[in-house]
Amino acid sequence: MSDTERGEGRRRGRNETEDERADRMWTELIQEVRVAQMGVQILFGFLLTVVFTPTYARLSDTDQTIYLITVVLGACATGALIGPVSLHRLVSGRRIKAQAVRWASRLTLLGLLLLLATTSCSLLLILRVATHDGFVPYLVAGVVAWYLLCWFGLPMWARYRHTARQGEFSSR
Q: Which among 86, 82, 103 is positioned nearest to 40, based on CA atoms?
């Protein structure tokens, strides 16, 4: 198979080969994952300590259930956001970086969704313990809507609004 058939000689968008693009995208992805990993690891570490406090025994059954769900979600988010590192290590040198970037990107997106769920459940639990007012679900729903807007809504809008469509540049 020639370099061109493998995509190594073909130039795209930034005047980079497919391999150069995969390298750049991998570097960008890992930088993004580092931010999310830090947040999920701190949150998960904090969650792991809660069960060992005297307050945990005084939580209602509902609050203990919310806590357990939150811990499991945090563990899953941690796994998904650390997954790209393991993926890279295990496939490094196998000439599948473009595919690895796609898989790692999917794991990262899944990790962000799980982090959203973990953070939301954490907020729900904290507000339920801090106050027993009926506005707690509405406040949590508002924060979830804010996360969805910041993490997914605005990026998807920008993607839709500013991504060139096929042939758009040739007609300008």
A: 82
The residue to which tokens 């769920």 are assigned: 117
Query: Which stretch of DSSP H or E encloses residue 95?
Result: none
Query: According to the 3-state scheme, what is the secondary structure of 120-172?
Result: HHHHHHHHHHHCCCCCHHHHHHHHHHHHHHHHHHHHHHHHHHHCCCCCCCCCC
Q: What pLDDT does residue 170 have?
A: 43
Hey, is 172 helix, strand or coil? coil
β-bridge mates for residue 25, sequence order: none
pLDDT, tens digit, 9 for 90 and up, residues 58-100 = 999 999 999 999 999 999 999 999 999 999 889 888 888 899 9
Joined tokens for residue 33: 């994952």
Q: What is the pLDDT, as a whole number, of residue 13?
A: 59
- Please report, as a single letter, which amino acid is at residue 148: L
Spatial distance between the Cα atoms of 97 and 18, rounded to a whole number of angstroms: 10
